[in-house]
Every structure is written in C-alpha cells, then in structure tokens.
Amino acid sequence: MSDHSARARRRGEELIRAIHDAVLEEVVEVGAGRLTMDGIARRAATPRTTLYRRWSDPIEVLLDALYHQHPVEEPTPGADDLRGDLIRALRLMVEWALSPAGRAVATILTDPKSVALMSEALFERVFANRGGTFTRTVLQHYADRGRFPVELLTPVVADIGEALVTKRLIDTGTAPSDEDLSAIVDQAILPAIGLGPGGPGAARA
Amino acid sequence: MSDHSARARRRGEELIRAIHDAVLEEVVEVGAGRLTMDGIARRAATPRTTLYRRWSDPIEVLLDALYHQHPVEEPTPGADDLRGDLIRALRLMVEWALSPAGRAVATILTDPKSVALMSEALFERVFANRGGTFTRTVLQHYADRGRFPVELLTPVVADIGEALVTKRLIDTGTAPSDEDLSAIVDQAILPAIGLGPGGPGAARA
DNA sequence: GGATTTAGATACATGAATGTAGCTAATCGC
DNA sequence: GCGATTAGCTACATTCATGTATCTAAATCC
C-alpha cells in the first residue's frame, strides 16, 4: 500500500500555482467578499494549514495570485492600419477582461476590504497597462508618425475605447462583438482624433 | 419607569426606512458579498427577527432598499447650451454615483451572488435611467432641434460620457472635477457628433 | 378601552470559517 | 543515505451568522 495517496505530493511552485488557480476560480464564483481560506483550500485540495503558512487571509491569496499572473499580450501596431490596430487592441482587452484574472480584478475593484488592502505599489503592478493601455499604445504609435495631431492624444482620448468596452461589459455582461468594437472605433475614437469615418473634415459636409 | 427603552418604538414605514438606510451604509462598508442579516440588524438597532419577517436574506434587503430609493434627478436641457447641458448631466451622474445608492449599485454589479438574484424586471427598475441616460437625454434634445445630425446619435455615442466618467471613478476613486467633465465633453462627446472644439470641420484645418 | 398587529428581547441548535497545534511522511539538498 | 524542509492530516476551541421559536409590550385600529 505505498499509494494510499492518489496523487504525488505537490510542493513549492507547483503547489502555489494550484492555489493561485483555485483562488481565481473561487473569486469568480463567489465574489471577492465571500472568499474564505476554507473555500480556497477545498478547491485547491490542500489543507488550510498550508495556506496559513504563507498568507494571512483570503484577499492576500487573491492579490498574490494576480501579482503572479503572466502579463497580458501587448498590442503591437504593425502595418499602416490605425483602424484595424485599434480594433485589435480592444479585442485584446476584451480577451483579458473575460479571463479569470480579469474577472477577479473587476470584483476586487468594488470590494471595499480588497481595495483597502492594496498598496499603491501592488495596484500599480497588478493593474497597470491592463485596464488602460490597450489603445493608448496604438494611438501613440500613429501620432508619432504624424497620422494625426499629437496634441489630440489627451488622457481622455486615450481612455475612450477602454471606457466604452468596460461599460458594455458591465451593462450586458457579454463580450462585445467585432461589430461593436468597430462601432466604438469609428464612432468615438476616430472622431476624437480628427479622423471621422469619411476622413478629416467629413463631419462638415 | 415608563421609559426604560431609550427610544420610542419604530413601526412600519419609519422602521423600514431605518433598515434601508442601514443596509446601504453597511454595503458601502463591507461590500455586497459580506452583507449579513446580523450586520444590518445591528446597524439598524433592531432584532434580526424583524428582518426575517420581511426578507429572506441580506441581498433581498439591499435590492429592496435600492428599489425604494427616490429616483435621481433627470437632466433637463434648458437654454440653447449643448455643451453646458452635457457637463451638467455628467455632474448629476457623478453626484448619483457617489451617493450611498450609487456605491451600492457598483458593488452589486460585480458580486456574482447579487447579480444572480436579480430578475430582469428588478434590474430594469433599479438601474434603468441611472447608469446610462444622463447625457442621452440631453443629446436627444439637441438632435431633435437639428443642432447636429440625428444619425450620429448612436448607442455608442450616447454612452461616451457615462463610460468615461465611470472609468475615472474606478481608476482614481475620486470625483472628476468640472475641468475633467469639460475635457470629456470637449474631447470625446462633441467630436463624436461632428462638433469639434472650434466648430464643425475644425479638425481639418 | 379592548382587540389586533407588530417590534423588541431573549434563547437555542446548527453550521461554517477561523486560527492554532501536533503529528506523519513525502520530497529535496547535500 | 541522512537531515532539513514542508505537505498532508486531524483535532480543537472560538467566533459568527443562521433560522426558528417564544414571550412581552408598545403602537394602532375601531
């Protein structure tokens, strides 16, 4: 009877990854507010004692999991296709937002206890370049190449795409289709940088 | 010894209002996920039994409280001042979002258990015209009067202002200043309806 | 003023999560 | 191989929320 334990004993990195996965699944199911050490431990199939050896409460586990997430893919502006690159950037954002990590971030941001537990530094590390830099990268690229006036690339303008996608996600709870993303680009972002659907100045005609 | 109880006994409307107030305070402090009958009862200084007589769980209490909130003030377009009316509409929205009810809605929307408990109808009643119709009312008014082409007032365009204000609230956690609201109107909304800062077609020059 | 309704004050059994402790045994480093 | 580390297991006292039940007494209706 050498194998009364079904699975080889996990340790170090492997175990921690399992716990990180567990907490991300758990938070999507019950919300950041109802996270418990017990629930995480059960889902990760590990004793609670293992959790207490490393973290002091469920939110710590969650933040740690997010901290160790692989960074999201960055939008990489390629050919001379501003419109297409913007749509692709927003698609990347949607993808991230629907991932376990993205959903976890959403619940954290409206949970008072979680927010209180986050240091500035952690906030920076976890959220920077995720909810806010998808279209900015693309816009900066084309502004630098003179496709539109740099002074139009204000903080507000850089946020338009992300803001509208976020609102849609909250309102409908479902992923925006490619047509939705195109509409956002054509009707909100491009006009803001002086490039209406029919080209510069088209709105006048 | 007729007053061994410090306060006159509350009943009916008065008691219910106290409970509604309590649950709204409670949810802002602990989040929708950590709401408990116990916590609400303590804050309202009433026995738990009183709560169970009317509601079956904490989320029900919260939804009921929101359901009975007085509706928000509606933006009322007045003089011929599209820009000013848009800014005022967004200011109304910020005001609402920072109120107890607004904060409660924010936590509810990212709490899986709460969302699951909301029927379509209740959702409609509680959230309609709150997160989404501040600038739309104004824009519709001026579109009808021919100040800009009606076909430019798409669902996406009607969402721009609310989306950007929401994003700011989430990102910074603080209320946008009037300059911030002006920037949103000038740099995002007006361009989208063909009215750039310098008037129609200005982006071309 | 008497009957009805309903808040307020217990009390209690149950279940869940907490945080700690002690032991066993698998895995790793040398 | 041997010692150090660290999962895994079990137990336990504590705290908190739950849901129900019972009784008292204040407010209201007629």
UniProtKB/TrEMBL annotation, chains A, B:
InterPro entries: Homeodomain-like_sf (IPR009057), Tet_transcr_reg_TetR-rel_C_sf (IPR036271), TetR_C (IPR011075). SUPFAM superfamilies: Homeodomain-like, Tetracyclin repressor-like, C-terminal domain. Pfam families: TetR_C_11 (PF16859). Residues 77-187 form the Tetracyclin repressor-like C-terminal domain. The keyword Nucleus does not apply. The keyword Transferase does not apply. Gene3D superfamilies: Homeodomain-like (1.10.10.60), Tetracycline Repressor, domain 2 (1.10.357.10). Keywords: Transcription, Transcription regulation. It comes from the Bacteria. This is AcrR family transcriptional regulator. The lineage of its organism: Bacteria, Bacillati, Actinomycetota, Actinomycetes, Streptosporangiales.
